[in-house]
């Protein structure tokens, strides 16, 4: 039985109007069209944006190009850029409640979760500010008396930043402050479903002292506004987070002009559990990992690989705890699982559950959409008796659906974990550290959690193997991803003429 938190109606005063930020001006789109966002938890319009076209994207790119080439941002000292980023972090913290509300109302995530994400985002901006002053090159005085080598590290240039709808403010904060710390200028395109908090971030950055043209923010669909950001010759790098399918398209588009590409894509993340694990801790982590953000999370622990000896017991315990999860109104502080992003996505999630049942999986808990009177919701779902070859065990459902598989040997567990195209993250649970370390070294994923799940910190790199993406975000090298190196090879003293005959 799912605990329901029924949404309360919103007033008409909740609709907010937004313009785009191009070259320091808040402007309408070239065609004057708008995009309306319907709140997934309440079914009413809450935001209205100017819809960008190719013309608007090209205006934003041109502004970013001018701001880079004239040096107004890259030629600042690192300490000056760092100070501006620190001011921005303080302003993010000061407006955290407003930003969290916007993310909750537009994405459907619980307000308490959104507030936690805002605290994490502010920390990332402070971390990037510190890294701005750590960026440095190299020198080599070991090349002989006549040679001195210096390696400079310079901002790569104009960066297109394209972000998804599931973590609107957090994910832009995993990209933009590091690009700015490096001295880059940017064009940011958030998802047209959840653009409000990113546009407010534009206000914050203006107030913090970021010069005009350094950060440009446009709102629009991928084909109209996003595609030009990946193909235009004046863009030097694309940083994209989203589905693997769109990531492939982004990479193909960028290849036309050989841009640098950073991709954080999908995941189908396993948790491998041995009989000696702390099962109390694991059951809690399994429910959290599967249903956090309604499972609309690339890092979701959507694939449990349980030792056969404990599979039935653990599945039952997870189902019992899942029945206590509070599902409903994103704006209620007690809610733990909010709304699904769109009706179409809810239909897709339900389709995976139906197909799995047809293939022989058992619905151990949930399995259906919930009617709460407004918006769209899905019951936390557990599928047991899942085989590794089923679509629900191999493809990213991106919803609150947990698939349970079993194993008998460590080798089998690793084989199941590595049998899919993704490699973003994984978890292993055992009191035997040798077992954890062995799994950690064998599973091909960018993050391995041991006796925990979905913990993180600004200092730890994040990214995936294989079709989970290219490159890493966060960590002490994050700023370097937005740079190029330049070698200065200097001759000292008289040069010997060895080529031309004398």
TrEMBL record:
<dbReference type="InterPro" id="IPR015590">
    <property type="entry name" value="Aldehyde_DH_dom"/>
</dbReference>
<dbReference type="InterPro" id="IPR016161">
    <property type="entry name" value="Ald_DH/histidinol_DH"/>
</dbReference>
<dbReference type="InterPro" id="IPR016163">
    <property type="entry name" value="Ald_DH_C"/>
</dbReference>
<feature type="domain" description="Aldehyde dehydrogenase">
    <location>
        <begin position="26"/>
        <end position="487"/>
    </location>
</feature>
<dbReference type="InterPro" id="IPR029510">
    <property type="entry name" value="Ald_DH_CS_GLU"/>
</dbReference>
<keyword id="KW-0521">NADP</keyword>
<dbReference type="GO" id="GO:0046872">
    <property type="term" value="F:metal ion binding"/>
</dbReference>
<comment type="similarity">
    <text>Belongs to the aldehyde dehydrogenase family.</text>
</comment>
<keyword id="KW-0560">Oxidoreductase</keyword>
<keyword id="KW-0479">Metal-binding</keyword>
<keyword id="KW-0558">Oxidation</keyword>
<dbReference type="Pfam" id="PF00171">
    <property type="entry name" value="Aldedh"/>
</dbReference>
<dbReference type="InterPro" id="IPR016162">
    <property type="entry name" value="Ald_DH_N"/>
</dbReference>
<protein>
    <recommendedName>
        <fullName>aldehyde dehydrogenase (NAD(+))</fullName>
        <ecNumber>1.2.1.3</ecNumber>
    </recommendedName>
</protein>
<dbReference type="GO" id="GO:0004029">
    <property type="term" value="F:aldehyde dehydrogenase (NAD+) activity"/>
</dbReference>
<feature type="active site">
    <location>
        <position position="264"/>
    </location>
</feature>
<dbReference type="InterPro" id="IPR016160">
    <property type="entry name" value="Ald_DH_CS_CYS"/>
</dbReference>
<keyword id="KW-0630">Potassium</keyword>
